Structures are given as C-alpha cells and as structure tokens.
Please model this.
Amino acid sequence: MLDVIYLALTLALFALVWLIARGAEKLAAPDRATAPHDAMRGEEGSR
Model:
C-alpha cells in the first residue's frame, strides 16, 4: 500500500514541477528570433 502512495506522490510532484515550468514559460518574454513572422522577414531581407 505504501508503494502505491509513494508512486502517486512522485507523479504528483512531477506534475507540479511541469505546471510550474509551463507557467514560467508563459511569463517569459518571447524570443523575437523564434517568432514566425520575424523569421520570415529576416529571410526576405537577406536575399
């Protein structure tokens, strides 16, 4: 029974870390070089 509890708590911990990382990623400013519209402009300007 303790094995099941340990497994459930471990999975819950990983899920919590994943949610925190996802939220931090959304809060971070987007990198302009990876934005699709900026990348397309860069390719057109380099020709």
